[in-house]
Amino acid sequence: MFSEITNHIHPILVHFPIALIIIGLCYDLVLAVKNRSLLPKQGAWLWVIAAAGAWLAVLTGPEEDARGNTTYLDIHSTLADFTAWVVTVLALWRLWQIIRGNKPFVKTFLVAYLVLSIASGALVLGTGYYGGKMVYTDGVGVKANGTMVNPPKP
Fold first, then answer.
1. Cβ of 25: how many Cβ atoms within 10 Å?
2. How many Å apart are CA 74 and CA 88, to the nearest integer?
3. What predicted TM-score, i.e. pTM, was given to this entire model?
4. Which tens digit of pLDDT belongs to each residue from 114-146?
5. What DSSP assignment string belongs to 78-144?
6. Whole domain around residue 25: which residue ranges?
7. 153: in domain
8. Of the residues 13, 41, 52, 53, which has the fewest C-beta atoms closer than 10 A?
């Protein structure tokens, strides 16, 4: 049972940062439109957990299953790396603002923050799209009756 979980840790973990990034983005957009500002403390935990989850998803990606089996691995990995970095920057920016006294994001900083947030949403959706292509189009990591559908190439 334990090996079954560890073999599937990436698909188990990957859904959490996807959900948290999209929820964090929507939360920030609603607050920003409603208040014309955004307090860094509001929803900061979403971005911190999303950043941690994004890095865990990157670190657990089973590249050895995909090498030689798909043309989508490079773009998926690149988008995943960019996603993790952008979300980390967002989380650190929020934490820095909290340390500095929770000064709200307004005007130029609010727009810059929201552009970066929207970019993180686009990046995570692109990453998920290409991850899905690897699984559902190329059968990477998929077993049927205990046999790999598309076994790794040496």
1. 23
2. 21
3. 0.91
4. 999 999 999 999 999 999 999 999 888 888 888
5. HHHHHHHHHHHHHHHHHHHHHHTT-PPB-HHHHHHHHHHHHHHHHHHHHHHHHHHIIIIIT-TT-EE
6. 2-148
7. no
8. 41
